Amino acid sequence: MILAVGLGCQRGCSVDILLELFNAALAEGGIERQCITALASLDRKQDEPGLLALAQVLELPLVFFSAAQLASYEDRLSHKSETVFAHTGCYGIAESAALALAEHLSQGPATLLVTRKKTAQATFALACAV
């Protein structure tokens, strides 16, 4: 089973904030950290220090998708943000990235296991594929 985490964050979001959200969302879902396969986000975030540090701390691969790739998941999102769309060209980063990565890795359909969890600076979602 593939468990893929999608993450979105504001510029300059610290690894501590991302890790706290990651751990809280997994705890709430009853999911163990070692079950996570990989992390994903928007390609504009590929130089974001907090995301890069999180992947390093968790020892997980971090994959990036373009806004065009993420936009194709719009109809499957639990929440669509006009603000995020205005800035990125897709309606939700965390959920879209999680779905995109799970489907990419499994070569099959994915579903959201944990819908968008949000803090002031970051978002988290978890998708599952067999």
Describe this structure in words.
The chain is α/β, with parallel strands linked by helices. It has helices at 15-29, 49-58, 67-71, 82-88, 94-106; strands at residues 2-9, 38-42, 62-65, 110-118, 122-129. A five-stranded mixed beta sheet has the order 3-2-1-5-4, sandwiched between helices. The radius of gyration is 13 Å and the shape is globular. The mean pLDDT is 96. It comes from Pseudomonas yamanorum. Residues 3-127 form the CobE/GbiG C-terminal domain.
Biggest sheet architecture: 5 strands, mixed
Beta-strand residue percentage: 25-35%
Q: Structural class of the secondary elements?
A: alpha/beta
Helical fraction equals: 25-40%
Main β-sheet, spatial strand arrangement: 3-2-1-5-4
> Span from first to last CA?
5 Å
Could you report the average pLDDT, rounded to the nearest whole number? 96
Our count of helices gives 5
The shape, in one word, is globular
Give the H and E element order: EHEHEHHHEE
Q: How many β-strands, per DSSP?
A: 5
Contiguous uncertain segments of 5+ residues: none
Rg over C-alpha atoms, rounded to the nearest angstrom: 13 Å
Domain CobE/GbiG C-terminal: 3-127
Protein name: Cobalamin biosynthesis protein
InterPro entries: CbiG_hydrolase, CobE/GbiG_C, CobE/GbiG_C_sf
